[in-house]
Automatic annotation (TrEMBL):
Taxonomic lineage of the native organism: Bacteria, Pseudomonadati, Spirochaetota, Spirochaetia, Leptospirales
Protein name: site-specific DNA-methyltransferase (cytosine-N(4)-specific)
Enzyme class (EC, first level): transferase
GO BP term, pick one: DNA restriction-modification system
Source organism of this protein record: Leptospira ognonensis
GO terms assigned for molecular function: DNA binding; N-methyltransferase activity; site-specific DNA-methyltransferase (cytosine-N4-specific) activity
Length: 384
């Protein structure tokens, strides 16, 4: 422990600066197809790929894949990606962009779908009707049936776009006014409807899907994107045990684990789970922790597994930020350095990317030195 503490006081290993832009949505629009809480900007993995990979077609891995930012950016930057997450929704978000069809293909396919078929009322509709007009809900259910029957890349991408339009705060969404980043409980939406004096109106879903596709595909994908993305791998597992990934097979890891008890991924995505038919699973424990000791134990086991899959001499970048517990500011990068001891990884340096909070952060009442992430603290570890 004394050695670790001495390392933490070695200020020469801390690099401060603004290494990528702090502006909103500077990456390719394909990154922003679906909102997803606790995502980092695509400029973060891109910076470290350019910094540490000196050739193309390297293997870049994210054990906490989230909405697929690292995987998509790896393909854009000319690398092969491995995307892992314990959440099935995450696997869908990432793998649905493994192949990005042309706008003309997608539009033709959407127009060919018959979403006007009669749909019987089902148990659970009462939870959905505070969000959707009955006719809109009928169209969504018809689209769900198409998705269940057709798992082609074309249909999966349409499903991804529809998922992004499922609920939100403008007329471009399928739902009445609600939150876009998370699915609030049905009863909470009923209260919102009363408070706002609103009733879900009919919203045809086809034009909204097509409009969103036009925005997301406004910039062409790099011509080589599919050359790399077709070799991607998507694994559904806890980050501390991913047996499908071979040992000594990864050139770079760029990831960000969950911070303590900040996000309830299961509850926040219940409408998306319904749309994708993701069943509840009591055995699926998402990594949300109530104290630092518990978080540290999980991080240490994740670092050990990450060391196994990394090639010798290759690097892992873990972005952890800082959090507030009570009146104490905890710099989690220092815990990561200590937890690396005995895992086969050694601390190289820590990049501290300072920036002002984004508009989204301010919406969540996150302000400097109070809650959540104030700076990107990226710990760089090397496999020995």
């Amino acid at each position: 422990m004394a050695g670790a503490i001495k390392q933490l006081r070695d200020e020469s290993r801390y690099i401060y600066g603004e290494f990528w832009t702090a502006k909103q949505r500077q990456g390719h629009p394909i990154h922003h197809t679906v909102s997803y809480r606790a995502s980092f900007k695509p400029e973060l993995p891109s910076f470290f790929m350019h910094e540490f990979l000196k050739k193309k077609k390297c293997v870049v891995y994210d054990p906490f894949g989230g909405r697929g930012t690292t995987a998509v950016q790896a393909n854009i930057d000319g690398h092969i990606a491995i995307h892992n997450d314990i959440h099935p929704l995450s696997i869908f978000l990432a793998s649905s962009r493994q192949y990005v069809p042309s706008l003309s293909e997608l539009t033709e396919k959407v127009e060919s779908l018959d979403l006007t078929k009669h749909v019987c009322e089902e148990e659970g509709d009462e939870k959905l009707l505070p969000f959707f007009h009955p006719r809109t809900l009928s169209e969504i259910k018809n689209l769900k049936k198409y998705l269940a029957e057709d798992q082609s890349p074309l249909m999966r991408f349409i499903g991804l776009i529809a998922l992004s339009r499922l609920h939100g705060h403008s007329s471009g969404f399928f739902s009445v006014y609600t939150f876009p980043q998370l699915s609030i409980p049905s009863e909470a939406q009923r209260k919102n409807n009363i408070k706002r004096n609103q009733t879900p109106e009919y919203r045809s879903i086809k034009p909204r899907i097509i409009q969103k596709m036009k925005r997301d595909l406004s910039n062409p994908m790099p011509p080589f994107y599919h050359e790399f993305s077709r070799e991607n791998k998507y694994t559904l597992a806890s980050a501390n045990h991913v047996p499908e990934i071979e040992s000594d097979s990864v050139d770079l890891i760029v990831t960000s684990p969950p911070f303590l008890d900040k996000v309830d991924y299961e509850g926040d995505n219940w409408l998306r789970h319904w749309f994708l038919d993701i069943p509840k699973n009591a055995e699926r424990k998402l990594s949300i922790f109530s104290n630092v000791k518990e978080w540290n134990r999980f991080i240490q086991s994740t670092l050990k597994e990450s060391s196994r899959v990394l090639k010798r001499g290759s690097l892992m970048v873990m972005e952890v930020g800082e959090v507030k517990k009570g009146n104490e500011i905890i710099n989690l990068d220092e815990d990561v350095v200590q937890m690396a001891s005995g895992t086969g990884l050694i601390w190289e340096k820590t990049y501290i990317h300072t920036q002002a909070f984004t508009k989204l952060s301010n919406c969540w009442q996150v302000s400097n030195n109070e809650k959540g992430t104030n700076s990107n603290r990226c710990v760089v570890l090397r496999k020995i």
